[in-house]
Amino acid sequence: MGNTAARFKAEVLRRLDEVFDGQEGAVHEAAVIFADTIERGGIIRAFGSGHSHANALEICGRAGGYIQTKVVREPAWGIYEMIDGVGDQFWLKLDLRPEDCLVVISNSGRNPLPIELAMHAREAGVKVIAVTAVDVSRAGTSRAKSGKRLFECADVVLDNKSSFGDAALEVEGLATRVGGTSLYTGCLLLDCAVMESIDILFERGIQPPLFMSANVDGGPEFNQRLLDQFKERLAEY
């Protein structure tokens, strides 16, 4: 393994080890929101613009995760996330209800699209969980007309503790840092909130509705029986 790769591995492992410092309460609050959503028959929706979409995919429609999940797929893939009003218009196309919750992932937390979605969701009575780099966001300015940053527009904030620009390493001879870390820390925070919510549901006497791997014999049939219960809300087309 080359020097830069070894440094990156060490940096990611360090951040994964430290990301929970001071955040156990926030992870628990997110877990309660997830459990409440599942218990009410709602849908956990997750949105991330650009590369943050990867964090959204991590908790939606995957083996070992909840059936009642759906990624918010923004058709322009973030091209217009810096433009005021795009989130306002996109919100009109979304089916989000008070029994649902919305996870919004944005590393900088400064662009209008995720901020507008979060604000509209809360106004509609939908609980919002933000995943963002809080220190980076506090040090920056908002591009949204509201002047707010994402961490100011959520019920619960999970801090991925990434660096400015989401690149952790300086490499001699390069003008920019390399090695993004937000994917790893953001996924760990969200996955742990999901895992804790499973415990909460068991404590309430509720069987968590979870995906079985489609590559396990009987998995597709097992999943379809559960998916059929939420077909109206989870239909892809």
What do you see in this structure?
By secondary structure, this protein is an alpha/beta fold. It is 41% helix and 10% strand. It has helices at residues 3-18, 24-39, 53-58, 86-91, 112-123, 134-139, 182-203, 219-227, 231-234, and strands spanning 44-48, 69-71, 101-105, 127-132, 156-159. A 5-stranded parallel sheet has the order 2-1-3-4-5, sandwiched between helices. α2 (24-39) packs across α7 (182-203). The longest helix has 22 residues, at 182-203. The protein is globular.
Set down the secondary structure blueprint.
Elements: H1 3-18, H2 24-39, E1 44-48, H3 53-58, E2 69-71, H4 86-91, E3 101-105, H5 112-123, E4 127-132, H6 134-139, E5 156-159, H7 182-203, H8 219-227, H9 231-234
Parallel strand pairs: 1-2, 1-3, 3-4, 4-5
Fraction of residues in β-strands: 5-15%
Order of helices and strands: HHEHEHEHEHEHHH
Poorly predicted residue ranges: none
Strand numbers in spatial order across the main sheet? 2-1-3-4-5
Structural class: alpha/beta
Query: What overall geometry do the principal axes of the alpha carbons give?
Result: globular
Characteristics of this structure?
237 residues, alpha/beta, 41% helix, globular
Give a quick rundown of the structure.
Helix content is 41%, strand content 10%. It is of the alpha/beta class.
